[in-house]
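Hey Z.,

So I finally got round to the magnesium ion thing we talked about over coffee. Here's the setup:
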Amino acid sequence: MKEYKICLLPGDGIGPEIIAEGVKVLDAVGAKYDTAFEYTEASIGGCAIDAYGTALPDSTLEAAKASDAVLLAAVGGPKWDTTDPSKPRPEQGLLGIRKGLELYTNLRPVQIFSALAGASTLKPEVIAGVDLMMVRELTGGVYFGRRERFYDEEGAGVNGARGQRAYDTMEYREYEIERIARQAFEAARKRRGKVTSVDKANVLESSRLWREIVHAIHDADYPDVELEDILVDNCAMQLITRPADFDVMVTENMFGDILSDEAAQITGSLGMLASASLGDGTALYEPSHGSAPDIAGRGIANPLAQILSVEMMLRYSFAMQEGADDIRRAVTEVLDAGWRTGDIADADTPADKTVGTARMGSLVVERL
Ligand code: IPM
Ligand code: MG
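And the result:
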């Protein structure tokens, strides 16, 4: 019997409700494939701020490092929203664990479940065949660059106006670009063999370095993969014009943050999208959506993105391809049978097919 240690980070809002369904699914797959998952739970985000005064207690990072994989649900909520630089924020937990585990690759697959095709705001012929992988650099760029807020004694502008001043720096080192480029090319080889590299090389120096390195790695080691460059503003437009043309997209941290929300919404169901954050050690899996504080505690949140993040965990951390395929098949069957949580239900969904979080999790488990 194989044994794996999983660190659970439920976080805030709907986090505890949806992660419970992820665990149910993990246990069911474990039972089927003679694998035991052992869980430790730790605190992150707003609840960690309340309990420890920091969004990422040292004990949480240690628990994550000591495990074979981390399953995270979501962090944040209005209770902890602040623009005061001296106050802790839940998101610091997420950024801290990404940096602490050196999770430089973020994979966000965007696929259409045919049963949900009608949920998109785009025309059916535009979204037909969408199957793309957003590869987002996750530990560099403006998220982690030098930053400062200060009172500007110098003054500037026509009147020499004084006031507060702030900056953030978008910085990349060659090795950071190289390793994420390799991840993208490797992913493309397992898919349709095409990489679209997104940058702003007509304006930003860090993007010009990005473009040079991506091409150098391509020409040296991945000439079999098709490579195209696209400027980020144009990309935002092309993504909703011809989304099915993209295979692997690779980009820096903040462009990836923005474009992955856009790409997710192509499907019309953000509640369905999972993500994997990978480095050279323990990896982290989480839904692409947030903590949905408005519906927290009511048992109605959609657990499918969390369940699909378990699928990614099996694939990338444990090489349990069959278990991963089982989860995808089970989720597809549940949707094909018409079961919906509120967020993916529509006017045609009968009341008796609209289910809550726990029931949705059980429906998936039954089909495993
Ligand atoms: C995401 C989120 C995070 C990010 C926030 C919550 C810090 O938007 O994972 O995309 O910006 O990376
Ligand atoms: Mg985001």
